[in-house]
Amino acid sequence: MKNELTSIISRKESEVLFVGVGNVLRSDDGAGVYIVSKIETGGRFAKLLVEASIENYISKINKLDPDVLIIADCIDFNRKPGFSGLVPIKQIEEFNISSHNISLRRVADHLKMEVHVIGVQPADLRVGENLTPPVRESSDAIITMLNDIIKSTTE
To answer: Do 47 and 123 meet the contact criterion of CB atoms below 8 Å apart?
Structure first.
């Protein structure tokens, strides 16, 4: 995933918007929001926390007009909790776990930019405000990786 993300966000002229999606009151479903909240942005990198209502932000995202949109969310890969991956938006319906009113794939149909999704396999989606240990560990690794990539492209 690191090489793919580096390739995507290291394009010198590209404006990149990270969007955190998920319900922070449903344990691991809040992983996307947690990840994006910890990313260090500035310059050509921006972030937006939309939680469970990404459909309400379609217009705002289009107005921000980034070249690349990277969505972080909880995705059921049918793998071990904490597994993470970069998923092309065209494959997003294959991996469905959604607290959203509309699928990310359908949202992307209304966006003008290149869209990628960083997903983390949940362990627990019950009511609760904390990520489970495997999801937090994976999320922290993603945060470190993204911050390292961003820092290396801005130096």
So the answer is: no
Beta bridge partners of 84: 120
Q: Cα dist. 93→41, 67, 88, 107, 149 in Å?
A: 29, 23, 10, 12, 28
Query: Half-sphere exposure of residue 136, counting CA atoms within 13 Å on the CB side?
Result: 7
Q: Which amino acid type is present at position 81?
A: P
pTM to 2 decimal places: 0.91
Q: Which residues have a Cβ under 8 Å from the Cβ of 19 and sit 6 or more positions away?
A: 32, 36, 47, 48, 49, 50, 54, 57, 61, 69, 70, 71, 72
> How far is Cα 14 from Cα 9, in angstroms, rounded to an integer?
7
What is the token pair recorded at 98? 């959604």
Rounded CA gap, 71 and 104, in Å? 9
Q: Which residues partner with 100 through β-bridges?
A: none
| Residue-wise burial string across 143-155, b where 16 or more C-beta atoms lie within 10 A, e elsewhere | bebbeebbeebee
Which has the closest alpha carbon to 32: 45, 6, 50? 50
Span 106-150, pLDDT tens digits: 788 889 899 999 999 999 999 999 999 999 999 999 999 999 999
